[in-house]
Amino acid sequence: MRTEALLLVVLSALLTAAANLMLRHGLLAVGGLSLKAAGVARLLSQPWFVSGVIAYGLAAVAWFRVLSVAEVSGAYPVLVGMTFCLVTVAAVLVFRESLSWPKIVGILLILAGIVTASRA
After folding, report:
1. What are phi and psi of 36, to 5 degrees?
2. What's the pLDDT score for residue 95?
3. Residue 117, class by beta-carbon neighbours within 10 Å (0-12 exposed, 13-18 middle, 19+ buried)?
4. Is 100 exposed, middle or buried (0-12, 13-18, 19+ CB in 10 A)?
5. Which string of b and e fits 31-63 if b means at least 16 CB within 10 Å?
6. Model pTM score
7. How far apart are CA 102 and CA 87, in angstroms?
8. Cα 76–71–78 angle (5° rounding)?
9. For residue range 8-25, what is the model confidence (pLDDT) as tens digits?
């Protein structure tokens, strides 16, 4: 994978991970998801939630560029694996979610896969 594509994949993964964390924070702040008008209004006025939506949009723009310069069969596994690892670690640190040995082993295996796929 070319350097530009790899850097854009990393950017997209970072933005996607940040978006997930911001969305979760915003959803927790308003008491969860409600599809009633008042619930949607609360979400749309919640800064963390709105920031998460914006981060997702920026991640998509970076990903669209990747799609135009790299093979999706190599870039997509790197994006998904990296995002999984980032979200898992950040969720443990930020939200105090549990981290078991099977998760740790899985993350290490994914990281090995990322390195392998990014060099293909």
Report:
1. -70, 155
2. 94
3. middle
4. exposed
5. eeeeeeeeeeebbeebebbebbeebbebbeebb
6. 0.86
7. 16
8. 25
9. 999 999 999 999 999 999
For tokens 């994978």, name the residue. Answer: 1
- Enumerate the H helices of the chain as residue ranges: 3-29, 37-44, 47-69, 72-95, 101-118
Task: Give the other-Cβ count within 10 Å of 21's Cβ.
Answer: 21
DSSP one-letter string for 90-111: HHHHHH-----HHHHHHHHHHH
- For residues 120 and 74, the answer to whether their CB atoms sit within 8 Å is yes
Domain residues of the chain, as ranges? Answer: 3-118
